[in-house]
Amino acid sequence: MNVAPPRSALVEWLLRPPRPITTTTVFLITAATGIAQLIHPALFDRFCRAPDRVAAGEWWRLGTAMFFQDGWTAGLLFNLVILLVFGAIAERVLGRWRWVLLYFGCGLFGQVVSYLWLRSTGAGNSMCVAGLVGALTIAALRAPDRFGPRRPARPILYAVPALAVFGAIFHDNHGLPVLLGMAVGYPLLPRDRPEPRT
């Protein structure tokens, strides 16, 4: 008789209701646009964050750039994986409307910073996920027993803001979205429910 292997506690936690519908929806849209870009490479030039085109009035590129990938196949696969992993966890911790606000707010902020400060051409959803990572870090630091990693790994959480600051100093466009996710995530985090009295 075949016995199914036991699922990990994390998998069980992620699969119980409510399901990560928002993460799944954004994942499918991002996968579809990424695959379309691989089939028709001209789509990247049409929708990426191109500083000269944005300066010419095509501001909508700062939004569409969140759905296309400057890393092409490797970038698409990597960004889809981190979206699925961190997105599902963030949706469970933060809830759907906070997820949407942080994902797209931090992503748009990262695109604007990349345009105004770095003047770089590019696209990708990794800065969106960076915002979720920032918010999850705050959640884990504020409620370590509920959301944080096991005790020996908890000091790793302090590396997230340190690496974000380091990245921003050296012109990596992911650092500031992480810090924004931490700053915005703090007041948005759902409050812990008080334990019922016995």
Automatic annotation (TrEMBL):
One of its GO terms (molecular function) is serine-type endopeptidase activity. The chain crosses the membrane at residues 21-39, 71-90, 97-118, 124-143, 155-171. GO terms for cellular component: membrane. InterPro entries: Peptidase_S54_rhomboid_dom, Rhomboid-like_sf, Rhomboid_protease_S54. It is a multi-pass membrane protein. GO terms for biological process: proteolysis. It holds the Pfam family Rhomboid. It comes from the Bacteria. Residues 57-173 form the Peptidase S54 rhomboid domain. Keywords: Hydrolase, Membrane, Protease, Transmembrane, Transmembrane helix. It is found in: Membrane. Belongs to the peptidase S54 family. This is Rhomboid family intramembrane serine protease.
